[in-house]
Amino acid sequence: MKLDKALKIIAVSLAAIIGSVSLVSCSIPGSSKNNAKSTPTAAQAEPTKSPEELIVGKWEVKSISDQNGEDVNLSDVDLSGTPLSDYANVIGMILKTGVTIEFKADKTIPLIVTSGKYEIDGSRLKISVPDMSSQSVTADFNINGNSMELNISGYTLNLIKE
Known about the structure:
Blueprint: H1 2-25, H2 32-37, H3 42-45, H4 51-55, E1 57-65, H5 88-94, E2 100-103, E3 108-110, E4 115-121, E5 124-128, E6 136-144, E7 147-152, E8 155-161
Antiparallel strand pairs: 1-2, 1-8, 3-4, 4-5, 5-6, 6-7, 7-8
């Protein structure tokens, strides 16, 4: 009889151990293993990036519009009297639909014959081309996913990240 009792105790103990192991390995709400396997929330899926991180890359100019939202060719716009007047000739050559602008992590913008520099302060982007002018241009900018809008002197440049 003692053997029967011992076997029952061993069987009950084994059942308890197996039940514990099974519970740990299955999905229990609130358990750390479950949280690791669960679908990540938006906050967990991708950490928030700074504007400095978001802007790095190649951006293609898709369209340029005026204050009324009408598409324009920037080379046709009279920039005299605006902060862009020193850059009018360069802008006419560079900022056309289909042209790509690259913002590098080292805060430079390669151009055809020289390079520009950029700084970010909140939602403001400051661009300068020291070899061509002592002035800089400041624009409000907004990045939403792979789209960027630059607002300069009443004009909006719409860019798409490549």
